[in-house]
């Protein structure tokens, strides 16, 4: 779930926001992550209490035409999101190793198949592997924060919402992009489903305990995702804002 909050869309909007407007849009990242934490909490609560994921709950409680429309809209949204992930990975491979974009797309598709294969070996294996990669990203950006020497006063000021965010059309455009890259529908469907893989007693006491620990798990992971997204914008602001890059 945390990976969904640091995908190529987040990187692109955070880099653009930091380079163009300095630390001003940090407040948008903060508010977006707070909103995401609330939505993910509701999602995990749905999965634990009802034993149904969001897609199944929609099918159970909406009429067939409404459920079908929701399915189509979500498929379009997820396909658009996946397109960004695949192209973003292909561009990264091109920048790092000079591979053609077509080759990068095929390698990215192969990565997906490998992850799906590993899922059959146990969900905890994937969880540990992804957590390790996220931790590695966090270490990299912590180093870059030290090297770029950002303004602490600017960071603290950027965490407070500024009126120009909604007044300046260019800034508003990037802010909407940050919000859209952070709060995405597939994470709600995913979380309400995978939270059911946890081992807990299916009675009231067990569900209450599961909600407690899943909430701590989710909030901690999303706070770490906030740190990485904020670090991207801060490094971009320190390195590129006010320059010709």
Average residue-wise pLDDT = 85
Which percent band covers the strand fraction? under 5%
Broad shape: globular
Spatial extent as radius of gyration:
19 Å
Largest sheet: none
Q: Helix fraction?
A: over 70%
Q: Would you count the extended β strands for me?
A: 0
How far apart lie the N and C ends?
33 Å
Helix- and strand-based class?
Answer: mainly alpha
SSE arrangement, N to C: HHHHHHHHHHH
- Number of helices, where a helix is a run of at least 4 consecutive DSSP H or I residues: 11
Features:
single chain; about 240 residues; mainly alpha; globular
Give the helix/strand layout.
Elements: H1 8-21, H2 26-50, H3 54-61, H4 64-97, H5 101-119, H6 123-148, H7 152-158, H8 164-167, H9 169-182, H10 185-194, H11 204-240
Structure report:
This protein starts with 7 loop residues before the first helix and ends in a 5-residue tail after the last helix. It is mainly alpha-helical and 245 residues long. Helix content is 81%, strand content 0%. It contains eleven helices and no strands.
Summarize this, please?
The protein has helices at 8-21, 26-50, 54-61, 64-97, 101-119, 123-148, 152-158, 164-167, 169-182, 185-194, 204-240. With 245 residues, the chain is an all-alpha fold.
